[in-house]
Amino acid sequence: MEEANSDVREERMKQVTKVVFLLNITKVGKWACWYTNLVVVEIPEGVESIDFRAFYYCKSLTSVSFPTTLKLVGNQAFWYCSSLVNVDLLHTNLQKIEEYAFSHCSELKSMTIPDSLQTLGQYIFDGCCKLSPHLDKNSIYYQYSDPSDSDSNSDSDSYSEDKPPDERTLKVIDHLRSLQS
């Protein structure tokens, strides 16, 4: 019976196409919008964190507006948001992007990251084969590269804080360090 209830919940979540966030919230909680058919999301000012799998498997999601107050994008927050093309975090106070946050966003072509970013989890771009790192004057951004250059470094879905950062994450860290000098 529990499995049947889970299937019903999943089907109901797929019917969700719009979410209105309350004012005065400080986080988008775990599993908040998973498996929905959201297309555009506007996260309100005051939100500081987007938690574990908040937008997990939102395959129709094409655009997210992030608040300046954002500090954390959690583990697998946007996992398999395969229609997401651009992510602009430049005007946020982002400090940490956790493991697998944007993994398998297969259409993701560009991402802008602010100087405030201090910590990157491993495999944050796993399966994002259209991204490659570039430096701009004051920020790191990722932009479209050859789609045949798939850089999938993970052969399992397991997560461990003890694992060292993957090669792509190390490139971002190196770029961030070069900006600080």
From TrEMBL:
Classification via Pfam families: LRR_5
Region (Disordered): 144-171
Bias type Basic and acidic residues, positions: 160-171
Protein name listed in UniProt: Uncharacterized protein
Lineage: Eukaryota, Sar, Stramenopiles, Ochrophyta, Bolidophyceae
